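Q: Give me the 3D complex with adenosine-5'-triphosphate.
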Amino acid sequence: MIQFNNVSKTYPNGTIGLRNINLTIEEGELVVIVGSSGAGKSTLLRSINRLHDITDGEIQVDGKSITRANDRELRRMRRDIGMIFQSFNLIKRNTVLNNVLSGRVAYHSTLRTMFGMFPREDIELSLHALERVNIREKAYIRADQLSGGQQQRVSIARALAQEAKIILADEPVASLDPLTTRQVMDDLQRINQDMKITTIINLHFIDLAREYATRIIGLRAGEVVFDGPPEEATDEVFAEIYGRSIRHDEMLGGEV
Ligand SMILES: Nc1ncnc2c1ncn2[C@@H]1O[C@H](COP(=O)(O)OP(=O)(O)OP(=O)(O)O)[C@@H](O)[C@H]1O
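A: Here is the predicted complex, encoded as structure tokens.
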């Protein structure tokens, strides 16, 4: 469970990122966060694993304050939180398997991982993670030889190898074509359902949000202006979240 209690974030230059957010996200939810550019989606997502520090309030993950965690506690808490980025964040010259194995780094000493000395169980866990996203056969190929969609799957496998209980995905499909987009969203949804991993995804496609979310949270100027099931997120609701009518480029389109 993730809890936001009166959370606000003001950036050092005075820009307000989040305003008094109160939210409880339960285990196993697939939450999609929507809102126009600058609404605070990234700030909200990245405050959960403290990639961004908040300036007011508190965030708790499974009952423990990540806001007040010291360095050691923070490292321990981050181990349970996988992160997926728009740009995949892979080491391109390394093999797919080594990239997935990097999800195990937090479980071992720096020296051990520096020399790539991962135990056999980690290799098996990583190969199994690749199997879950259907690219087991790519394990020994260099990451930069994969398509964008395949690279994003590697980053999902890395989060699985990490044995994350929570996955945060910041615009995970923004650099992908429509077909690949759906495949990656299907992977995230399947993993969420099969493994009960709480998943929070920032998306800018409205139809994808409706199709995949179990809950949609709408942000506007750093505030939660909608929080409900996808059935309630009508075009009118989206227009309110965005402060204007929906644009064509905010729909992915294609088959549903
Ligand atoms: N490092 C920073 N310093 C100052 N202001 C920032 C910083 N990062 C973000 N902001 C501002 O905080 C607000 C929220 O930004 P955020 O990136 O969270 O929005 P977003 O909804 O994710 O936008 P987008 O869809 O464009 O990625 C915006 O006004 C943005 O300009």
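A quick observation: The mean pLDDT is 93.
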